[in-house]
From TrEMBL:
InterPro entries: Kinase-like_dom_sf (IPR011009), Mak_N_cap (IPR040999). Keywords: ATP-binding, Carbohydrate metabolism, Glycogen biosynthesis, Glycogen metabolism, Kinase, Nucleotide-binding, Transferase. Pathway: Glycan biosynthesis; glycogen biosynthesis. Monomer. This is Maltokinase. SUPFAM superfamilies: Protein kinase-like (PK-like) (SSF56112). It catalyses: D-maltose + ATP = alpha-maltose 1-phosphate + ADP + H(+). Coiled coil: none annotated. Belongs to the aminoglycoside phosphotransferase family. Residues 27-119 form the Maltokinase N-terminal cap domain.
Length: 452
């Protein structure tokens, strides 16, 4: 699934010329990680620009969707994105697919800019920057001094379906460069760091990271060990389905791994208040209303889905709220040796950071993984509901064996969280992969009508 981009140059597109902001305004919406694909970019402004080393600029831009940035440059109606721009007079043709265009005016006039993450030389120099703590303008480079990173590791850019961009260095480390930047600490740095301090071995711990102080404080990227012989759960599940293999032993182990991570999260981030189902139901209903507004196909199912949320107010409150993964699915778990590891603690990328960093029911993660078994079972025809049902049973049994409570005994909670997740998926697929929309829509139909 993951291939190197460096080795597959495409012929250079006819070169675009324009102002830097004009070029970026055209280029950004074409990127896989661009979050605002459903709305036109009405304005684009550079929030910060820092020279990292000669020929490479670190840039934060605000892509607006009809709103005006608030005073002080903090984005309002729109998002902030992180770019590493290569700047050369004549970039090598090997960088063809990374080209953004030739800048017509301003201080970069006459130069061609491109996405520097595609440039092995820039990627190497960037690792050098990360290896040594220090500052560059508003940028802060920090590392765990107890885990020194060797010099000279060869980079390759991952070509995965991602919300961010990742570089693998010498199959030893992986650097995730966050693309959509929000003020505050990114949970993908905060959580793995805290779990490592708890001695939880199921999450690769950060070894170096970088952040900015302008135009607001935010985490920009994290380097962590690369699990080189790992396969992700999605690939393994699809392989098992294609071969007609049973996946219940893996699902059971995955349930145990999820519970281990939840237990470590509960110790690392103690939470005072218990979860409150009434508020949760109100939040889910609000998200459903917003999603049905964007995706009209949801509308006939709204009454049935609302009933699933309303039932929360009368059902058992379930386990206490705590920090969770927030976007758990088969693509977020890696199997290396005989163990499952969990990655990507960013949460659902479209939710505000404050919400992603607050406490939620662990049932939300469980529901995310159960939805993922359903996604996998629907990848081939005839689709395999029995396969998904067996994985579901095994996963919950594995979870119960470690956590001491059984998700299968929380039917009302599970139904509400699975419904909420399916609503999120409908919106996600409508924005990013319209061809996949029938997958969560099938679940919506089932959850709204039958409730199982
Ligand atoms: N520590 C790691 N070891 C091996 N592969 C990893 C590691 N972290 C991420 N990956 C690979 O990179 C892909 C993207 O990582 P992820 O954190 O999910 O990024 P995003 O948030 O952009 O979706 C994963 O699907 C996985 O294949
Ligand atoms: O980019 P992230 O991995 O953080 O997560 C986003 O993208 C996922 C798809 O790449 C999306 O997951 C959905 O599709 C998966 C199959 O590709 C499936 O296993 C998941 O169950 C389903 O939710 C995820 O929702 C989104 O946040």
């Amino acid at each position: 699934m993951t291939k190197t981009a460096f080795l597959r140059p495409r012929s250079a597109p006819a070169e675009h010329t324009g102002s830097l902001t004009g070029l970026l305004r055209e280029w950004l919406p074409r990127q896989r990680w661009f979050a605002g694909k459903d709305r036109p970019v009405t304005d684009l402004g550079v929030l910060s620009m820092t020279e990292l080393f000669p020929g490479c600029l670190h840039v934060l831009v605000h892509a607006g969707h009809g709103g005006v940035p608030a005073p002080g440059g903090t984005p309002s109606a729109g998002d902030c994105y992180q770019l590493l721009l290569g700047v050369r007079e004549n970039p090598s043709p090997r960088l063809g697919r990374a080209l953004i265009g030739r800048v017509r005016d301003g201080r970069l006039a006459g130069m061609t800019v491109y996405d520097a993450l595609h440039d092995p030389r820039a990627a190497q120099l960037f690792l050098e920057r990360l290896r040594r703590p220090g500052t560059s303008g508003p940028l802060r480079f920090e590392c765990d001094a107890s885990q020194p990173v060797p010099a000279g590791l060869v980079p390759r850019l991952l070509d995965a379906e991602q919300s961010n961009s990742s570089l693998v260095y010498g199959d030893e480390y992986i650097l995730k460069v966050f693309r959509r930047i929000q003020p505050g600490v990114n949970p993908d740095l905060e959580v793995p760091g805290a779990l490592a301090r708890q001695g939880c071995h199921r999450v690769p711990a950060p070894v170096a990271w970088f952040r900015t102080t302008h135009p607001f404080k935010a985490t920009l990227g994290v380097l962590q060990p690369y699990l080189r012989d790992a396969s992700d759960g999605w690939t393994l599940a699809l392989d098992a389905l294609a071969a007609g293999d049973d996946f219940t032993a893996q699902a059971h182990a995955l349930g145990r791994a999820t519970a281990d991570v939840h237990l470590a999260l509960a110790s690392a981030f103690p939470v005072g208040a218990p979860g409150e189902n009434g508020r949760t139901a109100a939040g889910m209903t609000e998200r459903l209303t917003a999603a049905a507004h964007c995706v009209p196909a949801l509308q006939p199912f709204v009454p049935g889905l609302r009933a699933a949320f309303a039932a929360l107010t009368t059902c058992d409150p379930g386990p206490p709220a705590q920090r969770i993964h927030g976007d758990l699915h088969l693509g977020q778990v890696l199997r290396a040796g005989r163990e499952w590891f969990v990655i990507d603690f960013e949460g659902e990328p479209s939710r505000p950071l404050s919400e992603r960093r607050s406490a939620h029911s662990p049932v939300r993660d469980i529901a995310g993984m159960l939805r993922s078994f359903d996604y996998a079972a629907r990848q081939r025809r005839p689709w395999r509901p029995e396969w998904a049902r067996r994985c579901r049973e095994a996963y919950c049994a594995g979870y119960a064996a470690r956590a001491g409570w059984d998700p299968r005994k929380k039917h009302g909670l599970l139904r509400a969280y699975e419904t909420d997740r399916a609503v999120y998926e409908v919106l996600y697929e409508a924005r990013h992969r319209p061809d996949w929309l029938p997958v969560p829509m099938a679940a919506i139909e089932r959850l709204a009508v039958r409730g199982d």
